[in-house]
């Protein structure tokens, strides 16, 4: 799998804090590389701006069929909020930063295509919330995950209280959040906190493999499947089935459906029009 393009976003005139790398035939897999290694990708104000900008760019790019979120640091995915920066903040500065932080996490969560987190090393606090904002989490055997916010006088504020509870249920999420405990990759997998554990240092490779498989399927179908699952998850069954029907109709009368059926009948690989 080869990179086709590489772009980035960061502080004007400085090294990008988040890079976009495109992979595979057609560049349909976008890898968002967190690239603030000197701080283990701690989410500063500038880092939050970069994540929001990059996810917005990717969300608007209809050629993207799957996304991987990874790290340039071999010992950390992201260690969470930049507490050194926050230690200097006044209350007003902390309030002003809040919308930027929310935009960063929502940017990942709201991506319209499937997103795979590649977690090697530490994914703590806001860093783990970035992973939780993805659809799938692949962790290397040496990974450590957790939401330790109550140990420093705050609560998870990047979606952790909601996303972890939806992922593993109330009691397991409560245990992790209230005790601020950290989990090994094996413990996290056993509890359903992460979806797959691979050899240390190979999470990115496995995430790109999964994303490549996803990107090989109908882009219209995959986007509408994610939309149906996300919109239907927090509603009653009847309403969820109505959401599914709406998404089915948006897919069934698309060019992708026509091409998929024709390719199956002709025993060939489909060439998705993506519309």
UniProtKB/TrEMBL annotation:
The keyword Mitochondrion does not apply. Signal peptide: none annotated. InterPro entries: ClpP/crotonase-like_dom_sf, Enoyl-CoA_hyd/isom_CS, Enoyl-CoA_hydra/iso, Enoyl-CoA_hydra_C. One of its GO terms (biological process) is fatty acid beta-oxidation. Keywords: Lipid metabolism, Lyase. Its EC number is 4.2.1.17. PROSITE patterns: ENOYL_COA_HYDRATASE. GO terms for molecular function: enoyl-CoA hydratase activity. It catalyses: a (3S)-3-hydroxyacyl-CoA = a (2E)-enoyl-CoA + H2O; a 4-saturated-(3S)-3-hydroxyacyl-CoA = a (3E)-enoyl-CoA + H2O. CDD domains: crotonase-like. It comes from the Bacteria. PANTHER family: (7AS)-7A-METHYL-1,5-DIOXO-2,3,5,6,7,7A-HEXAHYDRO-1H-INDENE-CARBOXYL-COA HYDROLASE, ENOYL-COA HYDRATASE-RELATED. Belongs to the enoyl-CoA hydratase/isomerase family. This is enoyl-CoA hydratase. It comes from Pedococcus cremeus.
């Amino acid at each position: 799998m080869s990179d086709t393009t590489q772009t980035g976003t960061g502080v004007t005139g400085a090294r990008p804090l988040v890079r976009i790398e495109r992979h595979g035939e057609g560049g349909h897999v976008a890898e968002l590389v967190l690239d603030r290694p000197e701080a283990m990708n701690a989410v500063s104000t500038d880092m939050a701006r970069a994540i929001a900008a990059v996810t917005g760019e990717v969300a608007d790019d209809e050629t993207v069929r799957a996304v991987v979120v990874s790290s340039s640091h071999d010992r950390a995915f992201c260690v969470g909020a930049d507490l050194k920066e926050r230690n200097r903040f006044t209350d007003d500065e902390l309030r002003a930063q809040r919308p930027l932080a929310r935009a960063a996490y929502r940017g990942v969560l709201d991506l319209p295509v499937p997103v795979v987190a590649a977690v090697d090393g530490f994914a703590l606090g806001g860093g783990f919330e970035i992973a939780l904002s993805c659809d799938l989490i692949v962790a290397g055997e040496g990974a450590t995950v957790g939401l330790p916010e109550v140990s420093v006088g705050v609560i998870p504020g990047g979606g952790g209280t909601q996303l972890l509870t939806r992922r593993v249920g109330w009691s397991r999420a409560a245990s992790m959040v209230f005790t601020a405990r950290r989990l090994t990759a094996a413990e996290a997998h056993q509890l359903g906190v992460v979806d797959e554990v691979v050899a240390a240092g190979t999470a990115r490779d496995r995430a790109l493999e999964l994303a490549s498989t996803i990107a090989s399927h109908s882009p219209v179908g995959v986007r509408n499947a994610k939309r149906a699952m996300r919109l239907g998850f927090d509603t009653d069954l009847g309403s969820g089935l109505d959401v599914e029907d709406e998404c089915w109709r948006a897919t069934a009368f698309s060019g992708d459906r026509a091409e998929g059926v024709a390719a199956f009948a002709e025993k060939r690989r489909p060439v998705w029009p993506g519309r």
